[in-house]
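Hi U.,

Before I forget, here's the chain from the pilot set. I'm dumping it here mostly so it's searchable later in email.
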Amino acid sequence: MGHKRTLAPDGPDGGYSLPLSYIPIEKQLLFNEIKTKWWGANHQIFIRMFNMKLFSCIVLMAMLPFASLAQQAVVTFKKFDKQNKVDVLIAGRLFTSFLYADTMEKPLLYPLVSAGGAVVTRGFPLYPKPGEPTDHPHQIGLWFNFENLNGLDFWNNSSAIAINQKAKYGWIRTDKITKIKGGTKGLLAYHANWTNQANEIILEENTSFEFSGSKAQRVITRITKLTAVKKAIFTDAKDGLLGLRLAHELQMPIIEQEKIKDSERIISPVKRRLDSIPTGNFLTSEGKQGDAAFSTRGVWCKVYGKIGADSVSIAIIDHPLNPNYPTFWFTRGYGLFAANPLGEKVFTNGTSSKNLTLEKGESVTFKYRVVIDNGLRTPSPTQLNTIARSFTQK
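Structure:
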């Protein structure tokens, strides 16, 4: 007849042992003495091991929701040659479109849509929305150009410029899409020429976009290499370099101060909002907020506000290999959000300047990351610092 195995309730290892009734009494006494001494010397070790296992399980269980939240979605593309357009879809939903018709005067990404479905870019002038501002028609979506290259203004060129004034402006003409590849990191690359009105080339541009996204986040990494076909001089100017025009909701609220007399004829200043839609605010890596962010340097800057029930933020992150790092932030309450490392003279009130000259054949590279979040809250400075550190590896 076989021995029945039972679980030893006081065993240190949770293993099995024979019932004591099958062991002679003298061996039981010796066994108990050895067991007591061994368990006394080692039980703390097992307690610590148990606690570590329990803690690991708790941490793992706590991380599961965040792991699923951060799960990368698949990026796909739809190319429309006749419209000079490439749609970028994340998890099957439109994130943005790459628009590159010459009539746009520059290639750009428009619109930008958060993971929650909120459009974070202004509609005007392509698809105007009721009540939104209609200033600065050249500010469309997310773009990259500059105000003064060899005396030509690339930044302010638009369909609003009169034909007899166009010679003062420059074009960025996209001539080919060089790469499209889907996946958890979607890749789109193109080649373009920076030209004057006579289509004479000053610079060649090679740009790659990397798109990715998760349940509550969308990310764009842009790497642009500019190569001089002839001597190219970027003269220090305010308008540049990576620009984004924000949705009406992400503008800063406009506040007007009035003086009101009460019943005792005491005058008190009262602030009144002129527009109920804007909710935006700026914050830089150096802690500058609101209007104070303008013309200051920082590794990153974010704009944040409410669109519907969601908190939405857009952060632009500079790269340490970019010229004149960290960049100056060209932020305006009316909805312009730009990183401009080549506007030092304006941003320092003339105390210093930053002109960039490329001789024929020389090149310069600019790298930026744009992170769009939505949900109950937006990324903290600590989280954005972590994202910025990871971007340095790109």
